[in-house]
C-alpha cells in the first residue's frame, strides 16, 4: 500500500477530536515544499545516466526509482542540492530568506535557528546547485571583465600572513580575480569567474565560445583578448577607449557596468569581501536576485542540477584545479574540511562554473 492510502486509512481510525488536531497540524505544513505533485524531473539515472529505470517504492513522500543498468536507487532529489537535508522546513525558510536580501551568515543563522556552519554550507549548497543556463546572445552584446582582489577569506592556518583578504596593489596584476560579464539587451546574461591575472582569449573561449547568434555585435573597451576572441568567433566587434565609456549611440557597456558596480558593492561592502573560492557562487546569487525568482522557482532550478552534490562536496578539489591551472598563485591546502573524490578534477571543473 502506498503511504497516501496508509495515512488515509489511519486517519479514518482516529476519534473525531484527534482528526481535528491532525488536520490543524497538516494545514500548517506547506505542501508545495515537501510533496512534489509529480516527479517529472527524473529523466535518467543520476549515477550512470541510463534511461532504463523502474519505480521502486517510496522514500518519505518521494517516489523511489531503481536503475536497471547500475541497480542503484534514487529519487528526484538524488544528486541535487536538496538531497539529504535533515531539516527541510528550516531549509525552506533559509531559501526564502536568501532571495530576500544578502544577509550575513550570522544574521541568517539566527533567523533560521541553525549553526553558523550549517548556514554557510546551505548558502553554498544552494548557489552551487543553481544550474548555469548556456543561453545564447543576440544583437548588441556587451562584454567586460570585473576585477576582484584575490582573497583567501576564511582559510585557516595561513602562517605567512594575518591578513587573508585583498591587497593594496592597483592595476592589472596577478592578484586580480577576473569575472567575465557578457550580456545582450535581451536578458541573456553570463557571469563567469574566468581566471586570476591577465584575461586571455582562451579564458573567454572557455566560458562563452559558440553562444553567439549571427547578428551579434560585441561591444567592449579596447581589450586585446576580447578583440582576438571576437575575431576567432567571427563576430562584429565595436570597441572604444576605456576612458570614453562608449562608442557612441547604442554601442556602450553601460548595462554591464551597472551590474558590475552593484555586484562590487554587495561583495566588498555588504558582505565585507568574499573568498575567491566562492566568488562564482556570489555572482550566481546576484544573478538570481536580479531575476527576482521566488522560492518555488529556485527549488525547480535546484532539482534540475543532478551534479550539485558532487560539485558541492568537491568544492576544494575544484578550487585547487582553478588555482593551479588558471592563476599564478600557489595552492595552499590548510582548510578544516576536505573531501576527496575519485572523479576527475578537470571534469569537475568543467561541470562547475569555475
Ligand atoms: Zn544507473
Question: Could you outline the blueprint of secondary structure elements for this entry?
Answer:
Elements: H1 3-12, H2 16-28, H3 31-34, E1 53-59, E2 62-67, E3 73-74, H4 88-98, H5 105-112, H6 116-129, E4 140-149, E5 176-184, E6 189-196, H7 201-208, E7 217-221, H8 224-232, E8 236-240, H9 254-270, H10 279-291, H11 295-304, H12 308-313, H13 315-326, H14 345-351
Parallel strand pairs: 4-7, 7-8
Antiparallel strand pairs: 1-2, 2-3, 4-5, 5-6
Helix pairs in contact: 4-6, 5-6, 7-8, 13-14
Description:
The strands form 2 sheets. A 5-stranded mixed beta sheet has the order 6-5-4-7-8, with helices on both faces. A 3-stranded antiparallel beta sheet has the order 1-2-3, with no helix packed on it. Strand 5 and strand 6 form a beta hairpin. 40% of the residues lie in helices and 15% in strands. The chain has helices at residues 3-12, 16-28, 31-34, 88-98, 105-112, 116-129, 201-208, 224-232, 254-270, 279-291, 295-304, 308-313, 315-326, 345-351, and strands at residues 53-59, 62-67, 73-74, 140-149, 176-184, 189-196, 217-221, 236-240. 31% of the residues are buried. Helix 5 packs across helix 6 (116-129). By secondary structure, it is α/β, with parallel strands linked by helices. The radius of gyration is 23 Å and the shape is elongated. It has a domain at 140-351: Nucleotidyltransferase, domain 5 (2-Layer Sandwich). The protein contains 14 helices and 8 strands. Zinc ion (ZN) is lined by residues 45, 47-48, 50, 67, 69-70, 72. Zinc ion (ZN) binds next to loops.
Amino acid at each position: 500500500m502506498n503511504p497516501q492510502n496508509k495515512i488515509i486509512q489511519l486517519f479514518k481510525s482516529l476519534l473525531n477530536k484527534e482528526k481535528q488536531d491532525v488536520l490543524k497540524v497538516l494545514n500548517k505544513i506547506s505542501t508545495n515544499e515537501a510533496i512534489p505533485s509529480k516527479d517529472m524531473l527524473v529523466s535518467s539515472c543520476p549515477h550512470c545516466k541510463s534511461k532504463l529505470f523502474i519505480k521502486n517504492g517510496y522514500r518519505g513522500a518521494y517516489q523511489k526509482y531503481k536503475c536497471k543498468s547500475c541497480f542503484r536507487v534514487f529519487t528526484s532529489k538524488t544528486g541535487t542540492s536538496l538531497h539529504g537535508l535533515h531539516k527541510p522546513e528550516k531549509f525552506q525558510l533559509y531559501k526564502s530568506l536568501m532571495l530576500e536580501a544578502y544577509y550575513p551568515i550570522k544574521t541568517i543563522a539566527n533567523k533560521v535557528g541553525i549553526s553558523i556552519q550549517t548556514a554557510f554550507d546551505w548558502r553554498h549548497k544552494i548557489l552551487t546547485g543553481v544550474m548555469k543556463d548556456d543561453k545564447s546572445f543576440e544583437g548588441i552584446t556587451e562584454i567586460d571583465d570585473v576585477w576582484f582582489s584575490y582573497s583567501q577569506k576564511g582559510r585557516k592556518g595561513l602562517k605567512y600572513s594575518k591578513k587573508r583578504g585583498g591587497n593594496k596593489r592597483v592595476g592589472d596584476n596577478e592578484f586580480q580575480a577576473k569575472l567575465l560579464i557578457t550580456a545582450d539587451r535581451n536578458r541573456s546574461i553570463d557571469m563567469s569567474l574566468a581566471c586570476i591575472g591577465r584575461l586571455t582569449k582562451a579564458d573567454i573561449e572557455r566560458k562563452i565560445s559558440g553562444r553567439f547568434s549571427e547578428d551579434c555585435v560585441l561591444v567592449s573597451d579596447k581589450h586585446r583578448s576580447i578583440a582576438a576572441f571576437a575575431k576567432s568567433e567571427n563576430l562584429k566587434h565595436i570597441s572604444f577607449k576605456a576612458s570614453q565609456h562608449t562608442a557612441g549611440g547604442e554601442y556602450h557597456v553601460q548595462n554591464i557596468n551597472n551590474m558590475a558596480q552593484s555586484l562590487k558593492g554587495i561583495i566588498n561592502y555588504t558582505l565585507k569581501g568574499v573568498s575567491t573560492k566562492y566568488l562564482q557562487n556570489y555572482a550566481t546569487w546576484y544573478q538570481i536576485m536580479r531575476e527576482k525568482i521566488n522560492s518555488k522557482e529556485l527549488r525547480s532550478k535546484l532539482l534540475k542540477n543532478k551534479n550539485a552534490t558532487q560539485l558541492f562536496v568537491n568544492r576544494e578539489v575544484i578550487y585547487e584545479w582553478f588555482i593551479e591551472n588558471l592563476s599564478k598563485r600557489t595552492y595552499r591546502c590548510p582548510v578544516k574540511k576536505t573531501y576527496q573524490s575519485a572523479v576527475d578534477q578537470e571534469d569537475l571543473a568543467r561541470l562547475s562554473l569555475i
